[in-house]
Structure formats: C-alpha cells, structure tokens
Write a structure and sequence with these properties.
The protein is of the alpha+beta class. It has eight helices and eight strands; from the N terminus they run H-H-H-E-H-H-E-H-H-E-E-E-E-E-E-H. The protein has helices at residues 16-25, 43-55, 59-71, 117-120, 123-127, 139-155, 163-169, 242-255; strands at residues 75-77, 135-137, 177-178, 183-184, 193-194, 207-210, 216-220, 225-229. Strands 5-6-7-8 form a four-stranded antiparallel β-sheet. The longest helix is centred in the middle third of the chain and has 17 residues, at 139-155. It is globular and about 50 Å long. The protein starts with 15 loop residues before the first helix and ends with a helix.
Length: 256
C-alpha cells in the first residue's frame, strides 16, 4: 500500500477515516516482501491505524504520552495552539527553479495528491495528525529521539524500545532497488534507512531517514548519539542534500 489508487486532493489527507477506508479496500500492488516501494504518504496511516487499534490512541496522543512529554521534546503530530507561533513557513527559496512538475499520469507515491507548500503552511494542516509527512518539530527533538534509539541499540537503555526488538527491526530487506525512488536504498524492516555514503555519518552501523525538503535524522550507535538537520527552505528532490552533508562531515571532524 505504497500509494493511493484513486485520485485525491490534499484536503482528503485530513480525513483519517476516509483515508483508512481507502487503504483497507484497495488491492495491494504486490505480495508482501516481493518488492520495496517508498511509502511517501501512506505509511503513517498504515502504522498509525495499528497504533489506534491496539492502544485506542491516535499517533499524536501516543507519541506525546510515551515519548515527547516524558522527555520535554518539541515534536508534534498535530501542533497545539501554544506551539503554532513557533512553526516556520516552508518555502522553495533558492531551489525555486529546480522544482519540477510531475508529468507522470499514473498515480504514484509522490503525485497523489501533489505536494503543495501553500497547503502545508496552513493552520488546518499543522493541527492535523498526518504521521507520514505532517510531523512538526525542531532539530534538537529529532536528534534526541535518535539519541535514545542509538543507546537503546548500543546499551539496551530501553528509552523507546528494547534492544532485541530494535535489532530485529533493523534487519535489511531483501530488495536492493526501491521501485518508488528508482535507485538502490538499504531499507530495514521498520522503515529506517541503513547508512550509505555520508548521509548518516561515519559509521556503517548508523540508521535513520532523510526526506523531501532536505531534512534528515539518524542514530549513530557506535558513539551513542543522534544527529538531525532540519530546514524550512525546501529542496524538492529526494536525493542527498549537500547542506546537511556538509554539517554532518564537520560534526564528525569536531568529534574526533
């Protein structure tokens, strides 16, 4: 379920029950484990509904109760009124001329619905709980979460997850080429990306995720730390953002 098979508008993403109904009733594109596709917009609904069924809590409620509030983290699935003034507007900035409109007619993981910065900058979007692409937070919060995961893996600290469960979740999937992104990527069973190049620092054991816009976060279990870069100036590609890479490299120079 890496895509929606019926045409949607961005406002449809705000209707949780509608989206869940669509996903429940559409046929899979492939057998589980047969191929790997990046779930740009569906992943959060699929995982989020499991959380809701098991715990009775929405993703935002669950995350706030068990992770954010316990650790005073400024990260939200559903921004509250008190934090709304702290959210920066997204813009294409220097990347404005690089933004390309999709010419593909098929409904893929990225173009249905199409990215719309004006919509993402609205209050109604920020208040909604859209786990796949609507998390709002600062780099300190994201780095802290990955710091907890790094030490859960390194020291079995149990900040968020038990070591043996995280180890299982970090096993690499069989597919080497992601068919949504059309390039090789080392996915894990939990949806993290394993290190490739400098995107996640110096060590092969590192894991994390980057995304549309240029932001990224990752865990370095060798050093037991988390690193994050966020930006309001959107790089419209899914490739490695050189702004982040430069900072990551400099960090490791200073760490030595």
């Amino acid at each position: 379920m890496y895509r929606f098979k019926q045409k949607l508008e961005n406002k449809d993403l705000l209707d949780w029950e509608k989206i869940i109904s669509i996903l429940e009733n559409q046929s899979p594109d492939h057998k589980p484990g047969e191929a790997t596709y990046y779930h740009a917009k569906t992943h959060g609904y699929l995982v989020g509904n499991l959380i809701k069924i098991i715990t009775g809590l929405s993703v935002g409620q669950f995350f706030n109760k068990f992770i954010a509030s316990k650790n005073s983290l400024n990260f939200f699935f559903g921004v509250n009124e008190l934090q709304m003034q702290n959210v920066a507007n997204l813009s294409t900035g220097v990347f404005a001329n690089e933004s390309k409109k999709s010419t593909e007619e098929n409904l893929n993981a990225f173009n249905n619905p199409k990215h719309d910065l004006e919509f993402y900058n609205t209050t109604v979007w920020r208040k909604a709980e859209i786990p796949s692409m609507g998390g709002h937070g600062n780099s300190d919060a994201i780095a802290s979460i990955y710091d907890y995961l790094a030490n859960d893996l390194k020291n079995d600290s149990k900040n968020i997850i038990k070591q043996n469960i995280l180890q299982k979740g970090l096993e690499e999937t069989k597919s080497s080429v992601d068919l949504s992104l059309n390039f090789p990527i080392r996915w894990t069973n939990l949806g993290f990306i394993l290190r490739g190049g400098w995107m996640f620092g110096r060590h092969k054991e590192s894991f994390g995720h980057n995304g549309w816009g240029g932001s990224l976060g990752f865990a370095d279990p060798v050093n037991g730390l988390g690193i994050s870069y966020v930006t309001k100036e959107i790089n419209p590609t899914m490739g490695v953002d050189q702004r982040a890479i430069g900072l990551v490299k400099k960090f490791y120079e200073l760490l030595i």
